[in-house]
User: What shape does this take?
Amino acid sequence: MQHRLCAFVLFALGSLVGCGPVATRAPAAAPVREDAAQITARHFDAIRHSPPQLEAFLRAMPKGADLHNHLSGAIYAEDYLEWAARDGDCVERATSTLVAPPCDAALDRPPVADALRDDALYRQLIDAWSMRDFVADSGTSGHDHFFDTFGKFHLVNKAHRGDMLARATHQAALDHAIYLELMDTLADAQIRMLVEHTPWDGDFAHAQAHLHAGMAAVLAQAKTELDTAEQRRRDELRCAGAQPDPGCAVQVRFLYQVLRGFPAPVVFAQMLAGFELAMNDARVVGINLVMPEDGYISMRDYREQMAMLDYLHGKYPRVHISLHAGELAPGLVPPDGLRFHIRAAIERGHAQRIGHGVDVMHEDHPHELLAEMARRHVLVEICPTSNRSILGIGGDDHPLPIYLAAQVPLAIATDDEGVSRSDLSREFAIAATSWNLSYGTLKTLARNSLEYAFVPGASLWQGRDGFEPVRACAAATPGAATPDPDCAAFLAGSEKARLQWQLEAQLHDFEAGIAAGR
Ligand SMILES: [Zn+2]
Assistant: This one.
């Protein structure tokens, strides 16, 4: 890093002055970094109206993290198809739904492996398991087609968590992301069994006490599932070999995803399992609530679910919470349903991050809410393709510019890149184009993704309103290969800061490359 920085100093100054100490001292090095950033910003402005050039630029741009990524939605249908064929699964031709053997072609339930030899069936399944070529009609909306995909391939994703992890991290590496926070529901079957034998009277303390005895088995099962998946990921990506897949270098943490469309006893038990797991397994850093926010139980029980979170947050205050909230649009639900979800998620559900937040201007007192989000540093995870295909909201209808103007922190995320047929680079491109974002803003979004990640450790940055290094690293150039001893000690103690340092190094190299015309 140091020698690359030195080479860049020579390039930028156009002279052969010595540059040894310049490379690691912030006061002298900072203007050079600024020059490269400015050159990159000008280059970005020059190519931004060419979609192919924009995509190539943004694919190479370091992006930090993807904070909103459902593991089951991250997989492309082609992968699911291959795995299902290998497993000997069958497919119900009429509904494009995977079912367990025995298969029976006479009953229109052939082996799914037939799709690998039958182009029509292959196309049918990929379209049914994703948003590819989807055109809404009076019978099926984008919202319905999207959410219905998950039930169709559910059989195969239950059995392939490790393969899915390998695919998601491989894709993250291609997108130049270094950290994923993946949503997944662990030990699901054990929790459902536990709930069946647990009385429910609506009192959270009673429920917690009743569930307590079974929680150890749930945690053990979740740990086994994660161990198995991680081993499979390492094998699949050949992480121990001489030529490991770049996905091996991507750091992963999990958010326990609670299925908000289920009855209260299940939702509470899953929340409790998520909080317990986050306290007991460093791989799980928080929880999130998933499934359509407009569904019957999601809408009916919204306030009760926030009350559950309020209760459990009181018991487990260190566990992080991110919540889907405001993934709604006028007409999708009655007007009253648009008025309070985001505020309740923050004030009652203790959400530190909000997923989507699309209907924010329909909330009661929206400007006060925006100011509150800015003041409390509640980040919004923006998922452009998902919002467009599920809610029909994009461009000027989307609140992203309003959030930016209100100084609410934002990050770009994929949501379900496989089902959506997208990836993180494309989401950046859509954001840049839809809302005319500058390179500087995109860089802030990338830095935000690590700043607001739930990965443990102190931040590299002093505060959340800028990107000034903490005192220990004030004398170092962020991203330098050999930070001074104070900074090195600080980085050694913080996984988050190490990721942030790595992003700064990547950004430096990326900008130096653009400035050098590479
Ligand atoms: Zn989501």
Remarks:
- Residues 68, 70, 324, 355, 415 surround zinc ion (CB under 6 Å).
- The longest helix spans residues 204-236.
- The longest strand covers residues 251-259.
- Residues 395 and 435 are 7 Å apart (CA to CA).
